[in-house]
Amino acid sequence: MIDRDCWRDVTDVFEAGLKRVLLYGPPGTGKTHAGLYTGSRVRAERLVCTEDLTTAEITGTWMPRGADRWEWIEGPAIRAWRGTDGRGDRLVVDEVDRASGDALSTLLAMTDSPESARWRNPETGEWLQPGPEFSVVMTSNVESPEDLPAALLDRFPVRILIDRPHPAATDRLSPDLRPMALAGSLGPEGRRVSLRAFYAFDGLRAKVGEERAAELLFGTASGRGLLDALIVARMGS
């Protein structure tokens, strides 16, 4: 059985120049970081989806400028369409599964094929299309991409399960925590723990000690599992 490396998959996809990628899996593994920074010539706009996300937050909205003047301010999707050089940048859409119906419809329009995607600026009347270098990375914490709408999946044929933290991200941790962070689980029940929690433990234990830090962050059972694992690791070093 091949032990696939999700981060090698991500690198290969971006280096191949694919422009529609969905990264899914448990939180705290670096999906957003990969979208923002992996690949060459990456300049990215980021959009975080919530149940309250509006179309205006995606494409833009009118904003007051002075007492009697309003100005159209473009949203992150249109800014990414244009790009800093007119050729398009990357749009990173986080937690797309949380987008409301109206927001999802707008995101589908923004991420349509380059031949079909069009948007009209309400201030100038200008019709826009995404630049040739425009790309989209969507992230989701769903366990399976099939939990996402079919229309969205049709736009993102490349879907990569991110099931472990990026090794470069764990390098920020103390050496004794890195193996457990890469494994991503603690205790006999196998509770999954995000990389953010390991960062917090690493900093907190310096102030309150390991036992108290483990209890505060992970609870009794999982905290005990972390401490036991640390003891075993130190005995073997």
Could you give a quick summary of the protein structure above?
This protein is an alpha/beta fold. 40% of the residues lie in helices and 18% in strands. The protein has helices at residues 6-15, 31-37, 56-59, 76-82, 101-110, 150-155, 167-170, 178-183, 195-208, 210-236; strands spanning 20-24, 44-48, 60-64, 70-74, 90-94, 119-120, 127-128, 135-140, 158-161, 185-186, 191-192.
What does this protein structure show overall?
The protein is of the alpha/beta class and 237 residues long. The protein contains 10 helices and 11 strands. The strands form 4 sheets. Strands 2-5-8-1-9 form a 5-stranded parallel β-sheet. The longest helix has 27 residues, at 210-236. The chain starts with 5 loop residues before the first helix and ends with a helix.
Can you write the helix and strand succession as a string?
A: HEHEHEEHEHEEEHEHHEEHH
Mean pLDDT: 89
Query: Percentage of helical residues?
Result: 40-55%
Radius of gyration: 21 Å
Shape verdict? elongated
Most strands sheet: 5 strands, parallel
Q: How many strand elements?
A: 11
Class per helix and strand makeup: alpha/beta
What is the end-to-end distance? 30 Å
Q: Output the number of helix runs.
A: 10
Helix-strand layout with pairing:
Layout (H helix, E strand, L loop, with lengths): L5 H10 L4 E5 L6 H7 L6 E5 L7 H4 E5 L5 E5 L1 H7 L7 E5 L6 H10 L8 E2 L6 E2 L6 E6 L9 H6 L2 E4 L5 H4 L7 H6 L1 E2 L4 E2 L2 H14 L1 H27 L1
Parallel strand pairs: 1-8, 1-9, 2-5, 5-8
Antiparallel strand pairs: 3-4, 6-7, 10-11
List keywords for this structure.
237 residues, alpha/beta, two-stranded antiparallel sheet
